[in-house]
Amino acid sequence: STGQSDARGALIVLEGLDRSGKTSQSARLLSHLNSLGYAVESWRFPDRDTAVGKMISSYLTNQSQLDDHTIHLLFSANRWEKRSLMEAKLKSGTSLIVDRYSYSGVAFSSAKGLDIEWCKAPEVGLLAPDLVMYLNIPPEKAAERGGYGGERYEQLEFQKSVAKYYEMLSDPSWKIIDACLPLEDVEKQMKEIVLDCVVSCQKGKPLTHLWL
Ligand code: 2DT
């Protein structure tokens, strides 16, 4: 800690298509920051452990059917139910590495045909990430990686559409990572970017809110 009262943890979000490597890289970033002595946790959305998360999980595994708007709002509710804990963690100095966030929410639902602005609306007021890293991979390449797991959205044509919506959502502050590179190269790039971000949040960079 710098001893400043406004020092805080960083909210770091990883986005990308299925099989882009988000989950492996989250784990690597977690242990890297840990080894440097930073307080850090790895989170993911959807958080399937809550009551809302169980409904989402059942939908994703095709055990239940829900209207597209309904599931969209459940994904959003799943972030809202974690919002106060997220804020408390960040304020207490713990950084969070989050595997998927509001951008997944908007990209996946928009890819189904829902209006983008409608999709963004329930996200307004959630904490804005300090850093968004997008693991960029052509959908065809991602599909070649050991195949998909069989959940609802894991289909090439749909992933192609999601990629277009991610592109529409991305802004110049996003760090676009070439996820086709070897894991170690991706990891090296991400570590440097993340460390910069953690340091700037320690110096008291203010927390902001979506939608940006
Ligand atoms: P995982 O495979 O990463 O568990 O994601 N999704 C995710 C949405 O449609 N909306 C959201 O808000 C979020 C966070 C992306 C499960 C799937 O759920 C999709 C893939």
Automatic annotation (TrEMBL):
It is an enzyme of class 2 (transferase). The keyword Disulfide bond does not apply. The lineage of its organism: Eukaryota, Viridiplantae, Streptophyta, Embryophyta, Tracheophyta. GO terms for biological process: dTDP biosynthetic process; dTTP biosynthetic process; dUDP biosynthetic process. Its EC number is 2.7.4.9. This is Thymidylate kinase. It comes from the Eukaryota. The keyword ATP-binding applies. GO terms for molecular function: ATP binding; dTMP kinase activity; nucleoside diphosphate kinase activity. Residues 14-189 form the Thymidylate kinase-like domain. Keywords: ATP-binding, Kinase, Nucleotide biosynthesis, Nucleotide-binding, Transferase. It comes from Lactuca virosa. GO terms for cellular component: cytosol; mitochondrion; nucleus. Belongs to the thymidylate kinase family. Pathway: Pyrimidine metabolism; dTTP biosynthesis.
